[in-house]
Design brief:
By secondary structure, the chain is mainly alpha-helical. It is about 50% helix and about 10% strand. The longest helix has 26 residues, at about 50-75. The N and C termini lie far apart (about 70 Å).
C-alpha cells in the first residue's frame, strides 16, 4: 500500500506571527535569527516566512517554561514545615 505524501509545510508572514504572539515584527525576526523559530527568506524580493509547525513548537516550549517557573515559585514559597511535615505548633 502506498503512503500518502506528507503535507507541505505551511508558512506564516512575520506580521501574522507577531499578531498571534502579541509582539512586534522585529521581535519575530529576532526569534528566527536566534533559532527559536524556524524561518527562511523566500521570493523576490526576499521576505521572511515562518514555519507554522515552528510556531506550535515555540508555544509548547513557552508553555512548558511557564509551568516549570510556576512549580519553582511554589517550591520557593513553601515553608520548611510544609516541606518536611513538621508542625510549627509546640507539642504536636
Amino acid at each position: 500500500m502506498a503512503h500518502a505524501p506528507a503535507p507541505a509545510p505551511r508558512f506564516l508572514a512575520p506580521a501574522q506571527v507577531a499578531e498571534l504572539l502579541s509582539i512586534s515584527v522585529d521581535e519575530v525576526i529576532a526569534l528566527v535569527l536566534e533559532g527559536r523559530l524556524r524561518g527562511s527568506q523566500v521570493g523576490s524580493p526576499q521576505r521572511w516566512r515562518i514555519e507554522e509547525s515552528s510556531l506550535r513548537d515555540y508555544l509548547s516550549e513557552q508553555s512548558e517554561d511557564a509551568r516549570r517557573m510556576a512549580l519553582w515559585r511554589q517550591s520557593q514559597a513553601a515553608s520548611f514545615p510544609e516541606v518536611w511535615g513538621v508542625s510549627s505548633v509546640q507539642g504536636i
